[in-house]
Design a protein that fits this description.
The complex is a heterodimer. Chain A is of the alpha+beta class. Chain A is built from 14 helices and 13 strands. Classes of the chains: A alpha+beta, B alpha+beta.
């Protein structure tokens, strides 16, 4: 990755990758996570692709994307620690496989969407804003449709209640009524003018040419700003929470939130990563082999880490009546790691499994971009090779010590209402 | 073992094809510069293959719903009590499997030790081990998988749609079967299906990555045996009436707003090979023209709040079943349905589809096809299912360029029959 500083707080990052058929340009704007901003950001991410000065409707934007061989303009909101990221990207085929040159037109389309949204009376088009508020409302409400994700979100919500990180990534239905075309436009201007901007250009380009084009064709209106990513601290255990929610579903979901007391900046983090992989982060994990394969209690059971907050989540789908058995077995397996019941094979397998995952990142433009940007925002830009060499040096003792720091914080149980007796 | 190359210079892709002496078809898609390798080893056997006869059987037999999927789970189990995941753990590969209507496939992704991983893959798929005990254990795990899908609204709305469409075609049956049907599965049933469908002639191996084709044969010789070659399997499908079963089907689940799927059943005589491929591409272009985000129809329903960006169309045409579906979320699914039908009839009786629109959608599809070749897993998954239907996936761009407005109009009149359509709705409980 090569960085070109354009203005204070505005950087262009070029990632050369010639093996792909497509290219990707993303403009990221970073701001602090806050309840006040998150719902606005959700609505804005929809409104920006509704119409621009030149392409006034969704239909016209879609037609333009199709003419440019299925170029896709997307807005996305991502959480990186306590930094909220608003990204607008355009993915498009590399010119060398086409009968025509499209790069200039691609930048023009991205410029239109980012800098020339359709406005009226000093705000966004009210019809677009109202429709998208309704869509955001429906989207937030629909999170419940996927019970596995829903259970994870609820567990995190209870775990981080009262903390900034606990602000929902999706926004709040009750905050929608106060959003209008004027204050949303103000939010947009504020973001464009004052947030930290990183433009990632990934794929197959003439580097000097594309950086020059980005400067003149995309960032012409962008000025210097005093902006940076927000640093975040890990979350510590307060009191143990136990939440049960009943619902008319066939399968119950058990989601456990644990505090690891280890941050991604600590030396112990590498041991924690291996501990997670051995416990439930791989298909050869203790949870998979015992909760699923041996006891036949679940189809899925796995663990994952949120490194920036020092949190581990364990998630599974089970029969309501098997709650205690599954819960106990999960802790038996965690205790096993704490007591050193770890095979050398498990450790080397975990390193290899993580290595495959990390090397795979290099095979996707989005993957490379996200890896690099996450590193920048979170303040730990470590190459894949550096990370792997740290993992390889971790000892069994270190894994045991990392495991000993893990403590249960939140138990969330989505309890299926018992169905009729099975035949 | 000789490999021959087929190339598409325009998109810069090629594949090598070779036939192993056991009867197994092998395809290699060379990808230089990628970290990953991908291998997918599949059989032409999925949930729709319940009634069949192999060369060494006297009569046709019918097996319970969900056997193909059950077999997929069980093949990972090794005679020594371990499972294949443990072996892949030793090399760092990431392994998985899936069962669809017509394919069961085993796969791995790795970034090194490719040939060692290939050895593991060929070994575990070729060494079945089923006992009463391990079958009964799997009934518990798959039982949980079935329950998970019972709560999955998008899965339910889709299968309910197929149920409304098909009288006899087993595509309407849930791939995993039911808790009741899988309780009838025994080791004997599994061995019979295994012998029949996991015979080399019925299987395809696809490898993607920077692979030396000269090294493949030795691994095949080790595990894929000529004596297991039973030739083509005689698969029987009951005749399917042209008509739908019923027009509207509804279910309630805990969802926030209704989900819907509008289905159109393929009633033309089934095709294979290039003809099938072209028909699918024509239908997909047509569906995009009618319902895609650049259509006036999409815009009006979107503006009225009847649909949101989840509104989309898909088309699946295979030798033994086929349908198009238009799905999404809406507070008024019945109104969306009646608008869709009215609109289709309007387009049929007008010149609403223009040459320039077709050209634009073709460009979209050319771009999408290129994008597919960015990812070794996408390539492997797409091409294995194409090869199994006798399709050369590198012909995609040639087919696109030969499609005319008349092809599209003809498909519109034949496929989108508004008197035979179905509507599936999942309502909030």
């Amino acid at each position: 990755m090569k960085t070109y500083n354009i203005e204070k707080g505005v950087d262009v990052r070029v990632i050369k990758a010639e093996k792909f058929k497509t290219n990707l340009i993303t403009m990221y704007m970073a701001f602090d996570v806050s309840r006040e901003n998150i719902t606005k950001a959700a609505v804005l991410s929809q409104v920006l692709t509704r119409g621009t000065e030149k392409y006034k409707t969704l239909t016209e934007i879609s037609k333009r994307e199709e003419e440019l061989y299925g170029a896709t303009v997307r807005c996305e909101i991502k959480r990186k620690g306590e930094t909220q990221v608003f990204g607008i990207s355009i993915g498009f085929p590399s010119e060398k496989f086409l009968d025509e040159n499209i790069n200039k037109d691609i930048l023009e389309l991205l410029y239109e969407v980012v800098f020339c949204p359709l406005t009226e009376n000093g705000g966004f088009v009210s019809e677009y804003v109202n429709q998208e508020k309704e869509n955001v409302k429906n989207y937030i409400a629909s999170i419940i449709n996927d019970k596995r994700t829903y259970a994870k979100i609820k567990c995190l919500e209870h775990m981080f209640s009262g903390e900034i990180y606990g602000v929902s990534e999706y926004g709040y239905i009750e905050d929608l009524p106060s959003i209008n075309e004027k204050n949303l436009y103000e939010f947009y201007k504020e973001m464009i003018n004052n947030s930290k901007i990183d433009v990632f250009v990934s794929g197959n380009f003439d580097e000097e040419e594309i950086v020059a084009d980005i400067k003149t064709d995309l960032l012409s209106k962008v000025g210097a700003r005093n902006a940076d990513y927000k640093k975040c601290e890990i979350s510590k255990k307060t009191e143990e929470k136990n939440i049960v929610e009943e619902m008319d579903v066939s399968q119950s979901k058990l989601c456990l939130g644990l505090k690891t007391n280890i941050s991604m900046f600590d030396d112990e983090y590498y041991a924690l990563k291996l501990c997670n992989s051995i416990l439930g982060g791989s298909p050869f994990s203790k949870l998979f082999n015992n909760v699923r394969e041996k006891l036949s209690l679940a189809y899925y059971v796995s663990s994952s880490l949120i490194g920036s907050k020092g949190v581990m989540l364990i998630s599974s789908g089970i029969e309501t009546k098997n709650y205690e058995m599954a819960y106990n077995e999960i802790f038996v397996q965690l205790e096993n790691i704490k007591n050193g019941v770890i095979d050398d094979f498990e450790i080397t397998s975990a390193v290899k499994y993580i290595r495959t995952g990390l090397n795979s990142v290099k095979d996707s433009l989005k993957g490379i971009e996200d890896y690099m940007y996450s590193g920048l925002v979170l303040g730990k830009l470590e190459t894949v090779d550096e990370l792997l060499s740290r993992l390889e040096r971790v000892t069994k003792e270190e894994i045991i010590n990392a495991a000993k720091k893990i403590e249960l914080d939140t138990v969330y149980f989505l309890k299926g209402v018992e169905c009729a007796e099975e035949v | 073992m000789k490999f021959t190359a087929v190339e598409n210079t325009k998109i810069g892709e090629k594949y090598l094809y070779g036939k192993h002496k056991s009867g197994l078809d092998v395809y290699i898609i060379p990808k230089k510069g990628f970290s990953k390798y991908y291998a997918i080893y599949g059989t032409r056997y999925g949930s729709i293959n319940q009634t069949f006869k192999s060369k060494d059987m006297e009569e046709f037999i019918t097996v319970p719903d969900g056997v193909a999927h059950f077999l997929e789970h069980k093949l990972f189990e090794e005679p020594d009590g371990t499972n294949a995941f443990d072996k892949f753990a030793g090399t760092g590969a990431s392994s998985n499997a899936f069962t669809s209507f017509d394919i069961t496939a085993y796969l791995f992704t790795c970034t090194d030790k490719f040939y060692e991983n290939l050895d593991i893959l060929l070994s575990f798929v070729n060494s079945p081990y089923f006992t009463d005990e391990n079958v009964s254990k799997e009934q518990g795990i798959i039982g949980q998988e079935i329950k998970m899908y019972e709560d999955e609204p998008s899965w339910r709305v889709f299968f309910n749609m197929l149920g409304a469409m098909y009288h006899n075609n087993p595509v309407k049956i849930d791939i995993a079967g039911t808790v009741e049907s899988i309780s009838k599965i025994t080791p004997e049933v599994l061995y019979t299906c295994y012998k029949t469908f996991y015979n080399p002639s019925n299987m395809v191996l696809t490898l993607v990555g920077d692979i030396d084709e000269k090294r493949i044969e030795e691994y095949l010789d080790k595990y894929v045996k000529e004596e297991n070659n039973l030739g083509e399997v005689d698969k029987r499908y009951e005749a399917e009436p042209r008509e739908r079963v019923k027009e509207i089907v509804e279910q309630s689940l805990s969802v926030s707003q209704p989900l819907f799927s509008i289905g159109f059943k393929e009633t033309e005589p089934m095709a294979t090979g290039r003809e099938l491929y072209k028909r699918e591409i024509v239908t997909s272009i047509l569906a995009e023209l009618l319902f895609g985000s650049s259509s006036e129809f999409y815009m009006s329903l979107y503006s009225e709040g009847l649909i949101d960006s989840s509104f989309s169309s898909e088309c699946e045409l295979k030798p033994h079943y086929g349908f198009s579906a238009v799905s999404g979320e809406s507070s008024k699914p019945r109104e969306v349905y009646s608008r869709v039908l009215k609109y289709i009839d309007e387009v049929k009786n007008s010149d609403l589809i223009k040459e320039e629109d077709v050209l634009r959608i073709k460009k979209l599809f050319i771009g999408r096809n290129l994008r597919k070749y960015n990812n070794v897993e996408n390539i492997g998954n797409d091409v294995i299912s194409r090869f199994m239907c006798g399709i050369n996936p590198l012909e995609y761009s040639d087919i696109i360029s030969e499609i005319t407005l008349d092809d599209i109009k003809e498909r519109l009149s034949k496929h989108f029959d508004t008197s035979n359509s179905v509507l599936s709705i999942v309502n909030p409980a």
